[in-house]
Design brief:
Order of helices and strands of chain B: HEEHEEHEEEHEEHEEEHEHHHEEEEEE
Distance between the termini of chain B: 39 Å
Strand order of the largest sheet of chain A: 1-2-3-9-8-5
Shape of chain B: globular
Helix content of chain B: 10-25%
Largest sheet of chain A: 6 strands, antiparallel
Shape of chain A: globular
Oligomer: heterodimer
Strand order of the largest sheet of chain B: 10-11-12-9-3-13
Distance between the termini of chain A: 9 Å
Number of strands of chain A: 9
Number of helices of chain A: 4
Order of helices and strands of chain A: EEEHEEEEEHHEH
Number of strands of chain B: 19
Largest sheet of chain B: 6 strands, mixed
Number of helices of chain B: 9
Largest interface: A-B, 11 and 17 residues
Protein backbone atom coordinates (compact mmCIF):
# COMPACT_ATOMS: atom_id res chain seq x y z
CA UNK A 1 0.00 0.00 0.00
CA UNK A 2 2.80 2.44 0.84
CA UNK A 3 4.97 2.82 -2.26
CA UNK A 4 8.37 1.12 -1.93
CA UNK A 5 10.34 3.93 -3.56
CA UNK A 6 9.32 6.58 -1.05
CA UNK A 7 10.68 7.52 2.35
CA UNK A 8 8.50 8.15 5.38
CA UNK A 9 8.49 10.16 8.60
CA UNK A 10 7.15 9.22 12.01
CA UNK A 11 4.68 12.08 11.65
CA UNK A 12 3.14 10.33 8.62
CA UNK A 13 4.53 12.34 5.74
CA UNK A 14 5.91 10.60 2.68
CA UNK A 15 8.98 11.99 0.95
CA UNK A 16 10.09 11.46 -2.62
CA UNK A 17 13.70 12.48 -3.25
CA UNK A 18 14.55 13.74 -6.71
CA UNK A 19 18.09 15.16 -6.74
CA UNK A 20 18.08 18.10 -4.32
CA UNK A 21 14.32 18.41 -4.20
CA UNK A 22 11.97 16.45 -1.95
CA UNK A 23 8.26 16.17 -2.66
CA UNK A 24 6.24 15.81 0.55
CA UNK A 25 2.75 14.46 1.07
CA UNK A 26 0.57 12.73 3.66
CA UNK A 27 0.58 8.96 3.86
CA UNK A 28 -2.47 6.85 3.20
CA UNK A 29 -2.50 5.88 6.86
CA UNK A 30 -2.63 9.57 7.85
CA UNK A 31 -5.41 10.53 5.44
CA UNK A 32 -7.42 7.50 6.48
CA UNK A 33 -7.04 8.26 10.18
CA UNK A 34 -7.98 11.91 9.65
CA UNK A 35 -11.05 11.15 7.56
CA UNK A 36 -12.56 13.77 5.24
CA UNK A 37 -9.93 16.49 4.86
CA UNK A 38 -11.57 19.90 4.51
CA UNK A 39 -8.79 22.41 5.10
CA UNK A 40 -5.08 22.65 4.34
CA UNK A 41 -2.74 25.44 5.33
CA UNK A 42 0.60 25.23 3.53
CA UNK A 43 3.65 27.52 3.66
CA UNK A 44 4.34 29.98 0.85
CA UNK A 45 7.06 29.40 -1.71
CA UNK A 46 10.37 30.59 -0.27
CA UNK A 47 9.55 29.62 3.33
CA UNK A 48 12.42 27.98 5.20
CA UNK A 49 11.35 24.83 7.01
CA UNK A 50 13.24 22.81 9.62
CA UNK A 51 13.18 19.05 9.99
CA UNK A 52 10.67 18.17 12.69
CA UNK A 53 9.22 21.69 12.71
CA UNK A 54 5.64 22.56 11.92
CA UNK A 55 5.12 23.76 8.37
CA UNK A 56 1.38 23.71 8.00
CA UNK A 57 -1.94 22.38 9.21
CA UNK A 58 -4.33 19.76 7.94
CA UNK A 59 -7.89 19.69 9.23
CA UNK A 60 -10.49 17.02 8.80
CA UNK A 61 -14.12 17.47 9.82
CA UNK A 62 -13.25 16.17 13.26
CA UNK A 63 -9.81 17.50 14.07
CA UNK A 64 -6.87 19.75 13.32
CA UNK A 65 -3.41 18.27 12.99
CA UNK A 66 0.02 19.83 12.44
CA UNK A 67 2.03 19.04 9.37
CA UNK A 68 5.69 18.51 10.20
CA UNK A 69 8.58 19.07 7.86
CA UNK A 70 10.42 15.77 7.46
CA UNK A 71 13.52 17.57 6.14
CA UNK A 72 15.08 21.03 6.33
CA UNK A 73 15.15 23.35 3.38
CA UNK A 74 13.32 25.93 1.34
CA UNK A 75 9.83 25.47 -0.06
CA UNK A 76 10.06 25.73 -3.86
CA UNK A 77 6.55 24.63 -4.85
CA UNK A 78 3.13 24.32 -3.20
CA UNK A 79 0.23 22.26 -4.46
CA UNK A 80 -2.47 24.90 -4.85
CA UNK A 81 -4.88 22.30 -6.22
CA UNK A 82 -4.76 20.56 -2.85
CA UNK A 83 -5.38 23.73 -0.82
CA UNK A 84 -8.33 24.51 -3.07
CA UNK A 85 -9.73 20.98 -2.91
CA UNK A 86 -8.30 19.32 0.20
CA UNK A 87 -10.29 16.13 -0.51
CA UNK A 88 -7.66 15.53 -3.18
CA UNK A 89 -5.43 14.30 -0.36
CA UNK A 90 -8.06 11.69 0.56
CA UNK A 91 -8.53 10.62 -3.04
CA UNK A 92 -4.91 10.45 -4.20
CA UNK A 93 -2.46 11.06 -1.38
CA UNK A 94 0.59 9.71 -3.26
CA UNK A 95 -0.22 11.45 -6.54
CA UNK A 96 -2.32 14.56 -7.20
CA UNK A 97 -2.62 15.16 -3.46
CA UNK A 98 1.05 15.98 -2.81
CA UNK A 99 1.60 19.02 -0.57
CA UNK A 100 4.94 20.82 -1.06
CA UNK A 101 8.34 20.51 -2.71
CA UNK A 102 11.37 21.40 -0.61
CA UNK A 103 14.89 22.14 -1.79
CA UNK A 104 17.06 20.25 0.66
CA UNK A 105 19.49 22.08 2.88
CA UNK A 106 21.18 18.98 4.23
CA UNK A 107 20.68 15.85 2.08
CA UNK A 108 22.17 13.69 4.85
CA UNK A 109 18.91 14.18 6.80
CA UNK A 110 17.34 11.69 4.40
CA UNK A 111 19.10 8.96 6.37
CA UNK A 112 16.85 9.73 9.35
CA UNK A 113 13.73 8.80 7.39
CA UNK A 114 12.05 5.41 7.33
CA UNK A 115 11.87 3.00 4.43
CA UNK A 116 8.47 1.71 3.31
CA UNK A 117 9.06 -1.52 5.25
CA UNK A 118 10.05 0.39 8.39
CA UNK A 119 7.02 2.66 8.09
CA UNK A 120 4.68 -0.28 7.62
CA UNK A 121 6.03 -1.77 10.80
CA UNK A 122 5.72 1.59 12.55
CA UNK A 123 2.00 1.86 11.79
CA UNK A 124 1.45 -1.82 12.44
CA UNK A 125 0.39 -2.52 8.87
CA UNK B 1 -10.75 4.37 34.59
CA UNK B 2 -13.04 1.42 34.05
CA UNK B 3 -12.73 -0.52 30.84
CA UNK B 4 -14.82 0.94 28.03
CA UNK B 5 -18.15 -0.78 27.45
CA UNK B 6 -18.87 -2.41 24.11
CA UNK B 7 -22.51 -1.80 23.15
CA UNK B 8 -24.66 -4.77 22.04
CA UNK B 9 -24.14 -3.84 18.38
CA UNK B 10 -20.34 -3.57 18.62
CA UNK B 11 -19.60 -6.57 16.38
CA UNK B 12 -21.91 -5.30 13.68
CA UNK B 13 -20.07 -1.96 13.53
CA UNK B 14 -16.72 -3.69 13.27
CA UNK B 15 -18.05 -5.92 10.45
CA UNK B 16 -19.26 -2.81 8.65
CA UNK B 17 -15.75 -1.38 8.80
CA UNK B 18 -16.60 1.42 11.20
CA UNK B 19 -13.85 3.37 12.87
CA UNK B 20 -14.47 2.81 16.57
CA UNK B 21 -13.59 5.33 19.28
CA UNK B 22 -14.03 5.56 22.98
CA UNK B 23 -16.71 8.05 23.90
CA UNK B 24 -17.89 8.63 27.47
CA UNK B 25 -16.79 5.14 28.49
CA UNK B 26 -18.33 3.35 25.50
CA UNK B 27 -16.69 2.07 22.32
CA UNK B 28 -18.81 3.62 19.59
CA UNK B 29 -18.62 4.03 15.80
CA UNK B 30 -17.36 7.50 14.88
CA UNK B 31 -17.68 6.94 11.13
CA UNK B 32 -18.32 4.31 8.48
CA UNK B 33 -18.10 5.61 4.90
CA UNK B 34 -16.95 9.08 5.96
CA UNK B 35 -18.48 11.95 7.89
CA UNK B 36 -19.39 14.08 4.87
CA UNK B 37 -21.03 11.23 2.95
CA UNK B 38 -22.97 10.11 6.03
CA UNK B 39 -24.05 13.67 6.83
CA UNK B 40 -25.26 14.43 3.31
CA UNK B 41 -27.09 11.09 3.07
CA UNK B 42 -29.05 11.85 6.26
CA UNK B 43 -30.06 15.26 4.90
CA UNK B 44 -31.13 13.84 1.53
CA UNK B 45 -32.28 10.30 2.29
CA UNK B 46 -31.81 8.44 5.58
CA UNK B 47 -29.24 7.19 8.03
CA UNK B 48 -29.22 4.66 10.85
CA UNK B 49 -27.37 5.36 14.11
CA UNK B 50 -26.44 3.25 17.12
CA UNK B 51 -26.87 5.50 20.17
CA UNK B 52 -26.80 2.79 22.78
CA UNK B 53 -24.34 4.77 24.87
CA UNK B 54 -27.19 7.08 25.89
CA UNK B 55 -28.58 6.41 29.37
CA UNK B 56 -32.12 5.43 30.32
CA UNK B 57 -33.23 6.14 33.88
CA UNK B 58 -36.75 5.32 35.02
CA UNK B 59 -38.61 7.29 37.66
CA UNK B 60 -41.86 5.73 38.76
CA UNK B 61 -44.31 5.41 41.61
CA UNK B 62 -46.48 7.55 43.78
CA UNK B 63 -45.78 11.25 43.44
CA UNK B 64 -43.44 10.84 40.47
CA UNK B 65 -44.97 13.69 38.41
CA UNK B 66 -44.71 16.36 41.08
CA UNK B 67 -41.34 15.09 42.28
CA UNK B 68 -39.88 15.19 38.77
CA UNK B 69 -41.37 18.63 38.21
CA UNK B 70 -39.23 19.88 41.11
CA UNK B 71 -36.14 18.37 39.49
CA UNK B 72 -36.32 19.83 35.99
CA UNK B 73 -37.10 23.26 34.58
CA UNK B 74 -39.58 22.26 31.90
CA UNK B 75 -43.19 21.22 32.51
CA UNK B 76 -42.99 17.44 32.89
CA UNK B 77 -45.87 17.18 35.36
CA UNK B 78 -48.31 18.33 32.69
CA UNK B 79 -46.78 16.19 29.95
CA UNK B 80 -49.31 13.87 28.27
CA UNK B 81 -48.76 10.13 28.46
CA UNK B 82 -47.24 9.12 25.10
CA UNK B 83 -45.28 12.32 24.68
CA UNK B 84 -41.67 13.30 25.21
CA UNK B 85 -40.18 16.59 26.33
CA UNK B 86 -36.70 18.13 26.19
CA UNK B 87 -35.55 19.69 29.44
CA UNK B 88 -32.45 20.69 31.36
CA UNK B 89 -31.81 19.55 34.92
CA UNK B 90 -30.34 22.54 36.75
CA UNK B 91 -28.20 23.20 39.79
CA UNK B 92 -29.48 25.63 42.44
CA UNK B 93 -27.29 28.25 40.70
CA UNK B 94 -29.02 27.61 37.36
CA UNK B 95 -26.13 25.69 35.80
CA UNK B 96 -26.98 22.68 33.67
CA UNK B 97 -26.47 19.27 35.29
CA UNK B 98 -27.64 17.61 32.06
CA UNK B 99 -30.03 18.11 29.19
CA UNK B 100 -32.38 15.18 28.85
CA UNK B 101 -35.48 13.82 27.17
CA UNK B 102 -38.36 12.89 29.45
CA UNK B 103 -40.88 10.31 28.22
CA UNK B 104 -44.15 9.88 30.07
CA UNK B 105 -44.97 6.18 29.80
CA UNK B 106 -47.90 6.21 32.25
CA UNK B 107 -49.38 8.56 34.85
CA UNK B 108 -46.65 7.75 37.33
CA UNK B 109 -43.94 6.30 35.09
CA UNK B 110 -41.29 8.31 33.28
CA UNK B 111 -38.18 7.40 31.34
CA UNK B 112 -35.33 9.93 31.33
CA UNK B 113 -32.85 9.70 28.47
CA UNK B 114 -29.57 11.19 29.62
CA UNK B 115 -26.15 11.83 28.10
CA UNK B 116 -23.72 8.91 28.29
CA UNK B 117 -21.13 10.91 30.22
CA UNK B 118 -23.72 11.84 32.84
CA UNK B 119 -25.43 8.53 33.58
CA UNK B 120 -23.93 8.06 37.04
CA UNK B 121 -24.10 11.73 37.92
CA UNK B 122 -27.76 11.97 36.89
CA UNK B 123 -28.73 8.77 38.65
CA UNK B 124 -27.17 10.08 41.87
CA UNK B 125 -28.65 13.54 41.37
CA UNK B 126 -32.17 12.31 40.68
CA UNK B 127 -32.02 9.74 43.48
CA UNK B 128 -30.59 12.31 45.87
CA UNK B 129 -33.23 14.94 45.18
CA UNK B 130 -36.41 12.84 45.02
CA UNK B 131 -38.67 12.72 48.07
CA UNK B 132 -39.71 9.39 49.55
CA UNK B 133 -42.08 7.55 47.25
CA UNK B 134 -40.90 7.39 43.63
CA UNK B 135 -38.33 4.75 42.64
CA UNK B 136 -35.31 5.41 40.45
CA UNK B 137 -33.89 2.69 38.25
CA UNK B 138 -30.97 2.86 35.83
CA UNK B 139 -31.64 0.63 32.80
CA UNK B 140 -28.93 2.16 30.63
CA UNK B 141 -26.86 -0.95 30.07
CA UNK B 142 -29.82 -3.16 29.27
CA UNK B 143 -31.29 -0.69 26.77
CA UNK B 144 -30.13 -0.15 23.21
CA UNK B 145 -31.08 2.92 21.18
CA UNK B 146 -31.18 2.92 17.39
CA UNK B 147 -32.07 6.09 15.51
CA UNK B 148 -33.28 6.39 11.93
CA UNK B 149 -33.09 9.97 10.69
CA UNK B 150 -33.70 11.71 7.40
CA UNK B 151 -36.55 12.52 5.01
CA UNK B 152 -37.05 8.80 4.22
CA UNK B 153 -37.12 7.72 7.87
CA UNK B 154 -40.90 7.42 8.16
CA UNK B 155 -41.04 4.97 5.25
CA UNK B 156 -38.31 2.83 6.83
CA UNK B 157 -39.64 2.73 10.38
CA UNK B 158 -43.28 2.32 9.30
CA UNK B 159 -42.33 -0.73 7.30
CA UNK B 160 -40.31 -2.16 10.19
CA UNK B 161 -43.21 -1.84 12.65
CA UNK B 162 -45.80 -2.62 9.94
CA UNK B 163 -47.85 0.39 10.98
CA UNK B 164 -48.86 3.75 9.63
CA UNK B 165 -46.75 6.30 11.48
CA UNK B 166 -48.10 9.42 9.79
CA UNK B 167 -50.16 10.22 12.90
CA UNK B 168 -47.24 9.77 15.27
CA UNK B 169 -46.25 13.40 15.60
CA UNK B 170 -43.00 15.07 16.57
CA UNK B 171 -42.12 14.29 20.20
CA UNK B 172 -44.73 11.55 20.45
CA UNK B 173 -43.94 7.90 21.00
CA UNK B 174 -45.65 4.52 21.08
CA UNK B 175 -44.86 0.96 21.99
CA UNK B 176 -44.75 -1.45 19.08
CA UNK B 177 -42.85 -4.49 17.80
CA UNK B 178 -40.20 -5.10 15.16
CA UNK B 179 -39.85 -8.78 14.26
CA UNK B 180 -41.87 -9.65 17.37
CA UNK B 181 -39.43 -7.75 19.59
CA UNK B 182 -41.00 -5.05 21.77
CA UNK B 183 -39.74 -1.56 20.97
CA UNK B 184 -40.45 2.03 21.90
CA UNK B 185 -40.75 4.13 18.75
CA UNK B 186 -40.29 7.84 19.29
CA UNK B 187 -40.47 10.61 16.70
CA UNK B 188 -37.45 12.49 17.98
CA UNK B 189 -33.86 13.07 16.99
CA UNK B 190 -30.76 15.22 17.03
CA UNK B 191 -30.32 16.00 13.35
CA UNK B 192 -33.05 18.51 12.48
CA UNK B 193 -34.53 16.06 9.98
CA UNK B 194 -37.68 14.03 10.40
CA UNK B 195 -36.65 10.96 12.31
CA UNK B 196 -37.25 8.25 14.86
CA UNK B 197 -35.50 6.84 17.87
CA UNK B 198 -36.15 3.18 18.63
CA UNK B 199 -35.46 1.86 22.12
CA UNK B 200 -35.10 -1.87 22.56
CA UNK B 201 -33.90 -4.28 25.20
CA UNK B 202 -30.22 -5.09 24.61
CA UNK B 203 -31.05 -8.76 23.96
CA UNK B 204 -33.19 -7.83 20.96
CA UNK B 205 -30.97 -5.04 19.66
CA UNK B 206 -29.25 -7.12 16.98
CA UNK B 207 -32.45 -8.25 15.30
CA UNK B 208 -34.00 -4.77 15.41
CA UNK B 209 -30.81 -3.19 14.03
CA UNK B 210 -30.71 -5.76 11.23
CA UNK B 211 -34.32 -5.08 10.26
CA UNK B 212 -33.89 -1.29 10.27
CA UNK B 213 -30.44 -1.50 8.66
CA UNK B 214 -31.69 -3.58 5.72
CA UNK B 215 -34.62 -1.22 5.13
CA UNK B 216 -32.37 1.85 5.41
CA UNK B 217 -29.61 0.64 3.12
CA UNK B 218 -32.22 -0.88 0.77
CA UNK B 219 -33.26 2.62 -0.28
CA UNK B 220 -29.77 4.07 -0.36
CA UNK B 221 -29.41 5.10 3.27
CA UNK B 222 -26.23 4.52 5.25
CA UNK B 223 -25.07 3.77 8.79
CA UNK B 224 -23.98 6.98 10.50
CA UNK B 225 -21.39 7.45 13.25
CA UNK B 226 -20.96 9.96 16.03
CA UNK B 227 -18.87 12.19 13.75
CA UNK B 228 -21.74 13.03 11.42
CA UNK B 229 -24.15 13.09 14.34
CA UNK B 230 -22.10 16.00 15.66
CA UNK B 231 -22.02 17.94 12.38
CA UNK B 232 -25.77 17.35 11.87
CA UNK B 233 -26.67 18.68 15.30
CA UNK B 234 -24.26 21.59 15.03
CA UNK B 235 -25.95 22.87 11.85
CA UNK B 236 -29.17 23.01 13.90
CA UNK B 237 -27.48 24.63 16.92
CA UNK B 238 -28.57 21.74 19.11
CA UNK B 239 -26.46 21.95 22.26
CA UNK B 240 -23.91 19.24 23.02
CA UNK B 241 -23.49 18.64 26.72
CA UNK B 242 -19.89 19.08 27.83
CA UNK B 243 -19.19 21.45 24.93
CA UNK B 244 -21.95 24.04 24.63
CA UNK B 245 -23.58 23.54 28.00
CA UNK B 246 -22.42 22.37 31.41
CA UNK B 247 -22.80 23.26 35.07
CA UNK B 248 -21.10 26.62 34.40
CA UNK B 249 -23.69 27.74 31.85
CA UNK B 250 -27.43 28.33 32.19
CA UNK B 251 -30.31 27.52 29.82
CA UNK B 252 -30.94 31.25 29.39
CA UNK B 253 -27.36 31.83 28.24
CA UNK B 254 -27.51 28.79 25.97
CA UNK B 255 -30.61 30.03 24.16
CA UNK B 256 -32.88 27.26 25.42
CA UNK B 257 -34.85 29.55 27.70
CA UNK B 258 -38.09 28.03 26.33
CA UNK B 259 -37.34 25.00 28.50
CA UNK B 260 -37.38 27.12 31.67
CA UNK B 261 -40.92 27.47 32.99
CA UNK B 262 -40.68 30.12 35.67
CA UNK B 263 -44.48 30.20 35.98
CA UNK B 264 -44.74 26.61 37.18
CA UNK B 265 -44.14 25.50 40.78
CA UNK B 266 -40.80 25.42 42.51
CA UNK B 267 -37.87 23.59 40.88
CA UNK B 268 -34.14 23.43 41.47
CA UNK B 269 -32.52 26.50 39.99
CA UNK B 270 -35.73 28.51 39.70
CA UNK B 271 -34.63 31.40 41.92
CA UNK B 272 -31.28 31.81 40.21
CA UNK B 273 -32.80 31.58 36.73
CA UNK B 274 -35.58 34.00 37.67
CA UNK B 275 -32.97 36.43 38.86
CA UNK B 276 -30.91 36.01 35.70
CA UNK B 277 -33.95 36.52 33.52
CA UNK B 278 -34.83 39.70 35.40
CA UNK B 279 -31.30 41.12 35.22
CA UNK B 280 -30.66 39.85 31.69
CA UNK B 281 -27.86 37.51 30.68
CA UNK B 282 -24.38 38.95 30.13
CA UNK B 283 -23.37 36.45 27.45
CA UNK B 284 -25.17 34.24 24.97
CA UNK B 285 -24.44 31.14 22.95
CA UNK B 286 -24.22 32.49 19.41
CA UNK B 287 -23.59 30.94 16.02
CA UNK B 288 -20.95 32.31 13.67
CA UNK B 289 -19.57 31.59 10.23
CA UNK B 290 -15.89 32.00 9.42
CA UNK B 291 -15.15 34.72 6.89
CA UNK B 292 -11.41 34.03 6.84
CA UNK B 293 -10.01 30.56 6.29
CA UNK B 294 -9.78 28.22 9.27
CA UNK B 295 -12.06 25.97 11.26
CA UNK B 296 -13.17 27.06 14.72
CA UNK B 297 -12.64 24.46 17.42
CA UNK B 298 -13.68 24.12 21.03
CA UNK B 299 -11.93 26.48 23.46
CA UNK B 300 -10.52 28.81 20.81
CA UNK B 301 -10.59 32.37 22.16
CA UNK B 302 -12.81 35.03 20.61
CA UNK B 303 -11.86 38.72 20.60
CA UNK B 304 -13.17 41.98 19.19
CA UNK B 305 -11.26 44.19 16.76
CA UNK B 306 -9.35 45.71 19.71
CA UNK B 307 -8.20 42.20 20.68
CA UNK B 308 -10.23 42.30 23.87
CA UNK B 309 -11.52 38.90 24.93
CA UNK B 310 -15.26 38.62 24.33
CA UNK B 311 -15.84 34.89 24.59
CA UNK B 312 -14.81 31.39 23.60
CA UNK B 313 -15.75 28.75 21.07
CA UNK B 314 -17.69 25.75 22.40
CA UNK B 315 -18.21 23.78 19.15
CA UNK B 316 -16.99 24.18 15.61
CA UNK B 317 -16.67 22.28 12.39
CA UNK B 318 -16.78 22.32 8.67
CA UNK B 319 -20.48 22.24 7.75
CA UNK B 320 -21.05 19.64 5.02
CA UNK B 321 -24.46 21.12 4.11
CA UNK B 322 -23.36 24.75 3.92
CA UNK B 323 -19.77 24.06 2.87
CA UNK B 324 -18.63 26.71 5.29
CA UNK B 325 -16.82 26.64 8.59
CA UNK B 326 -19.25 27.25 11.44
CA UNK B 327 -19.06 27.50 15.18
CA UNK B 328 -20.90 28.13 18.41
CA UNK B 329 -19.56 30.12 21.29
CA UNK B 330 -20.49 32.20 24.30
CA UNK B 331 -20.15 35.84 23.38
CA UNK B 332 -20.44 38.79 25.73
CA UNK B 333 -23.39 41.02 24.89
CA UNK B 334 -23.80 42.79 22.51
CA UNK B 335 -21.30 40.87 20.37
CA UNK B 336 -23.94 38.16 19.93
CA UNK B 337 -25.94 40.45 17.62
CA UNK B 338 -26.41 38.98 14.15
CA UNK B 339 -23.96 40.55 11.72
CA UNK B 340 -21.31 41.40 14.32
CA UNK B 341 -17.76 40.76 13.17
CA UNK B 342 -15.64 38.86 15.65
CA UNK B 343 -12.12 37.42 15.62
CA UNK B 344 -11.57 33.76 16.37
CA UNK B 345 -8.08 32.87 17.52
CA UNK B 346 -7.23 29.95 15.23
CA UNK B 347 -3.81 28.65 16.26
CA UNK B 348 -2.69 32.07 17.52
CA UNK B 349 -3.85 33.90 14.42
CA UNK B 350 -7.00 36.04 14.67
CA UNK B 351 -9.42 35.12 11.89
CA UNK B 352 -12.51 37.05 10.94
CA UNK B 353 -15.92 35.52 11.55
CA UNK B 354 -19.47 36.87 11.50
CA UNK B 355 -22.33 36.19 13.90
CA UNK B 356 -25.28 34.70 12.02
CA UNK B 357 -28.83 33.63 12.72
CA UNK B 358 -29.31 30.11 13.98
CA UNK B 359 -30.06 27.38 13.18
CA UNK B 360 -27.36 27.66 10.54
CA UNK B 361 -29.38 25.43 8.28
CA UNK B 362 -32.96 26.33 7.42
CA UNK B 363 -34.75 23.09 6.66
CA UNK B 364 -37.81 23.15 4.44
CA UNK B 365 -39.55 20.08 5.82
CA UNK B 366 -37.52 20.15 8.97
CA UNK B 367 -38.26 20.38 12.60
Amino acid sequence: MNPEELNYSETHEWIKIDGKVATVGLTDHAQSELGDIVYLELPGVGTEVTAGGEFGVVESVKAASDLNAPLSGKVVAVNDAATEDPALVNRDCYGEGWLVKVELKDPSEVENLKTAAEYNEFIGA
Amino acid sequence: MAKAIKPPLYDRHVSLGAKMVEFAGFVMPVQYSGIIDEHVTVRENAGIFDLSHMGEIYVSGKGAPSALDKLVSNNVGKLDVGKALYTPICTPQGGIVDDILVYRDADETYMLVVNAANIEKDYDWVGGHLPKGPQVEDKSLQTALIAVQGPQSETIVAEAVAEDLSELHYYQFEFSVIDDIPVRVSRTGYTGEDGFEVYVDAAGAGAVWDALFDLTTGIGGVPVGLGARDTLRLEMKYCLYGNDIDEGTTPLEAGIGWTVKLDKGDFIGKDALGEQKKDGVKRKLAGFVMVDAGIPRRDYAVTNAEEKSIGRVTSGSYSPSLRENIGLGYLDLPYDDVGTEILVDVRKKPRLARVVETPFLKLMGGR
